[in-house]
Amino acid sequence: MSERPTEPITEPITGTAAGVPFTALPPAGSRHRPAPLIVTWHMMDAPCTDAAFAAALPMAGVPAWRVHLGMPLCGRRMLAGGMAAVLALSRQDTMLAYLEPMVRQAAGELPAALAELRERLAPAPGPIGVVGGSLGGAVALRVLARQEVPVAAAALVNPAIRARSVVELVEQASGRPYQWTAQSRAAAEHLDFVARAGDLATRTPQSPLLVVSGELDFPGLRTDAAELVAALRERYAEPELVQPATVAGLAHPLAEYPGLEPAPQLPVAKAVDEALSAWFLRHLTRGL
């Protein structure tokens, strides 16, 4: 185990925590006391690695550790055939070989990875922030629904809120209908977070949630985002803690293809970055 930092760190830290690759961005400026922690999960679209996601959404103005975790089968855990192999897997059985195991593994890895990150980075104790983009959004929602990890605030970007909507996108791209079974239907129901809004709303306290949608994102994903916001506002004691945001000109990806390596921040990603930064400054780091 690495020693805790004894002086301010200015460069990104890369490594693994409980086997999970990560890119960690330290809090800006001098730190007189430990800073809180934000954990993210990247997209499968560009940017599709932890390092690339960190470059697209650095949230540099937030006085917190921003730790970008690598999704299974991506980046330093990439399949031998690269993203083409991941795409082939998604078309082999979209629900049972791709969506369900990816989300289940990524969410299940968090407690052990978080324990190691706390030991290594020495952030402030207490609830964390979470961010998920696209399929990483489903991971963040699963973490919220499971309620194993205290979360002070959360944000989603073009999120995969309903697995069935992702299956429909794969069907459209491949031109082949998905063959549903009882097992895959059950898996899809478990990854329908509009239907599971009650599980998200029973957290104590209820986690503030920002849902960011690109103006040009897939229509089905935008519909799911609007329905999740409405379902949660019905269940939150303070409905204003659930906020939608639309970014003009943003389609689904946040970076240029292929999105494997860190790249200059696009203007649309900058707009998302500013929205996320303002959210966490308000709900995670106020008073620091």
Account of the protein in words:
By secondary structure, the protein is α/β, with parallel strands linked by helices. It has a single domain (13-283), classed as 3-Layer(aba) Sandwich (Rossmann fold). Helix content is 41%, strand content 16%. It has nine helices and eight strands. The protein has an eight-stranded mixed beta sheet with strand order 1-2-4-3-5-6-7-8, with helices on both faces. The longest helix has 28 residues, at 94-121.
- Following the backbone from N to C, one meets helices and strands in this order, namely EEEHEHHEHEHHHEHEH
Helix-strand makeup class: alpha/beta
Helix percent band:
40-55%
* Tally of individual domains: 1
Q: Strands across the major sheet, in which order?
A: 1-2-4-3-5-6-7-8
Any idea what the radius of gyration is? Answer: 18 Å
Determine the N-to-C terminus distance: 29 Å
Q: What's the CATH class label?
A: Alpha Beta
In short:
By secondary structure, this protein is of the alpha/beta class. It has helices spanning 50-56, 83-92, 94-121, 135-146, 163-174, 182-190, 197-201, 219-235, 267-283, and strands spanning 13-17, 20-25, 37-41, 65-69, 128-133, 151-157, 209-214, 242-247.
Layout of strands and helices, then pairs:
Layout: E1 13-17, E2 20-25, E3 37-41, H1 50-56, E4 65-69, H2 83-92, H3 94-121, E5 128-133, H4 135-146, E6 151-157, H5 163-174, H6 182-190, H7 197-201, E7 209-214, H8 219-235, E8 242-247, H9 267-283
Parallel strand pairs: 3-4, 3-5, 5-6, 6-7, 7-8
Antiparallel strand pairs: 1-2, 2-4
Helix pairs in contact: 2-3, 3-4, 3-5
